[in-house]
Write a structure and sequence with these properties.
Number of strands: 26
CATH architecture of the largest domain: 3-Layer(aba) Sandwich
Strand order of the largest sheet: 11-12-13-14-15
Mean pLDDT: 93
Strand content: 25-35%
CATH class of the largest domain: Alpha Beta
Number of helices: 14
Helix content: 25-40%
Low-confidence stretches: none
CATH superfamily of the largest domain: ANL, N-terminal domain
Distance between the termini: 56 Å
Radius of gyration: 23 Å
Number of domains: 3
């Protein structure tokens, strides 16, 4: 019986030692090697002082070696923190500083980022630097203290663990409204509960070949990795550059003979837009799953028309509830492009609620706010009791003393048949291209620019790949004349590229409402009108 996430690997290594576990480009790793190398890495990390409850930051892109790193950290009873190495140094520094790691694991591709962090004094000098590259990495500001070659000096025998399933396994940092990313604490049992349910529900088995599409700092990747490894199946990691090439992405699916695909809907929308899928394509595929944002109904119809042999399932849930909390397997092709796609019903051990402002249940077909309760709920935000208490509430229902509910910030309803629907955001948080984004974080970054007088960022629904467009209205200080291109160049140094607004409006003074606050509704209306005129 699996007790910890790393047990999945150990169990499958004992059954299928020589079987391929993970493939990416021309590199692969077997279950036996994944087990052996992660055992060695754990012992090496322990030599550098990593122990129960510590954190190890992974400045590593998606690869088989990154999974070795994850497993190795877990086997020290510590937590791993996946870093988005495409993010600006200023944002990465906030994550690294907040997590206070014992060790950084990095790679050649992240050399420039890590050098900048050290050179600018944004990281503690006493942190141990290591790499799973063959040779040491060195820059003006740092040098790694161990490499892949050093693993061979350590025993590859199994380790014993102090952790139990209630201990944290990793920290995932999401967008924060104040400009500081929030660290979501995810326990072993949070992940294992969903993985065990999903493996059984979808029937994931050793013969399966699954996709690994999301980046490692995106919680959807947690499902790809652990559901696949728990079943002894084969994970095919998707190279990020394929996202820009729908035809090559489709060819990747064919060549790998994938049986399962899982991604955000925007990726599927791009494939549909460029019409890269033939009738009866992907003959080995049995199921297609999506999560992270609403699926455009035309996209679903496009795929169902071409892949009648595939089962389609919508998953819904925020990072704070661990991967997904509800599911809806589509039973028939939608009849029209305007037909809403349900988020279905709660997964086993989870519960969805639609409540009003007083936390009272609403009647069927009445819009309220979606709340989640159950096994997937995170303990809360890393070292931030105030934010945790604001989002994770005591369950107000009779007989539920000691239970918690999580406020998703999504509007929703439940129909007469008991199916739930997600109807958009309550607040300034949006989903764009699969990422959950606090618009306040973008505004906070904009307002640090010395030439910026005021700014407001709103989201408008535009459909297609982007889904929700990020729109910025801004006013410059007197005497300044920066255009949107200059602002974009400065902003990309402060926030990830996926947070950069795609639409801009310049003002001398932003419109205000009766209370003297920026009139965001007015701005949304103006951006929507501008989109209509250019459509």
């Amino acid at each position: 019986m699996s007790r910890l996430l790393q047990d999945y690997i150990s169990q499958q290594a004992a059954k299928f030692g020589d079987k391929t576990a993970i493939v990416m480009k021309n590199k692969s790793i077997s279950y036996a090697e994944l087990e052996r190398r992660s055992n060695q890495l754990a012992r090496l990390l322990q030599q550098y002082g990593v122990s129960r409850g510590d954190r190890v930051c992974l400045f590593m892109s998606k690869s088989p070696l990154a999974v070795v790193a994850m497993a190795g950290v877990l086997k020290t009873d510590a937590m791993y923190v996946p870093i988005d190495t495409s993010s600006p140094a200023s944002r990465v520094a906030k994550i690294a500083q907040a997590s206070e790691p014992k060790v950084f694991l990095t790679e050649k591709a992240a050399l420039g980022l890590v050098n900048d962090l050290f050179a600018e004094g944004l990281l503690a000098k006493n942190v141990t630097m290591g790499t799973l590259e063959d040779e040491a990495l060195e820059s003006d500001a740092f040098k790694t203290q161990f490499t892949w070659a050093d693993l061979g000096t350590f025993s590859d025998n199994p380790l014993s663990y102090q952790n139990d399933a209630s201990d944290p396994a990793h920290l995932l940092f999401t967008s924060g409204s104040t400009g500081t990313p929030k660290g979501v604490v995810i326990k072993h049992e949070n992940v294992m509960h969903f993985v065990d349910w999903s493996r059984n529900y979808f029937g994931i088995a050793p013969h399966d070949k699954t996709s690994g599409h999301p980046p490692l700092h995106f919680d959807l990747s947690t499902f790809d990795i652990y559901a696949t490894l728990s079943a002894g199946a084969e994970l095919h990691m998707v190279s990020p550059e394929l996202n820009l090439l729908p035809n090559k992405l489709a060819n990747f699916i064919r060549k790998a003979e994938l049986t399962q695909w899982f991604s955000v809907p925007s990726t599927l929308t791009q494939m549909a837009k460029f019409n890269v899928i033939a009738d009866q394509d992907f003959p080995q595929m049995t199921r297609l799953l999506w999560c992270g944002e609403p699926m455009p109904t035309p996209t679903l119809m496009h795929f169902m028309d071409r892949l009648p042999h595939v089962t389609f399932t919508n998953l819904y849930g925020p990072t704070e509830a661990t991967i997904a909390s509800s599911y809806y397997t589509v039973t028939k092709r939608p009849e029209s492009e305007t037909e809403a796609i349900s988020i279905g019903v709660a997964c086993e051990g989870e519960e969805l609620l639609v409540l009003d402002d007083k936390l009272e249940p609403v009647e069927p077909e009445t819009i309220g706010e979606l709340y989640i309760s159950g096994e997937g709920l995170s303990p809360g935000y890393w070292r931030d009791k105030e934010k945790t208490d604001a989002a994770f509430l005591a369950d107000p229902r009779p007989g539920k003393a000691g239970n918690r509910i999580y406020r998703t910030g999504d509007l929703g309803k439940v129909d007469q048949q008991g199916l739930f629907y997600c109807l958009g955001r309550v607040d300034s948080q949006i989903k764009s291209r699969g990422y959950r984004i606090e618009l306040g974080e973008i505004e906070a970054a904009l307002n640090t620019l010395e030439y910026m007088k005021e700014s407001a960022v709103v989201g408008i629904h535009v459909g297609g790949f982007e889904g929700t467009a990020i729109c910025c209205a801004y006013a410059l200080k007197e005497g300044q004349n920066q255009d949107k291109n200059e602002i974009q160049r400065d902003l990309v140094k402060l926030v990830p590229k996926y947070m950069i607004p795609s639409q801009w409006m310049s003002y001398s003074v932003l419109p205000k409402n009766a209370n003297g606050k920026i009139d965001r509704k007015e701005l949304r209306d103006r951006f929507e009108e501008a989109n209509k005129q250019t459509a």
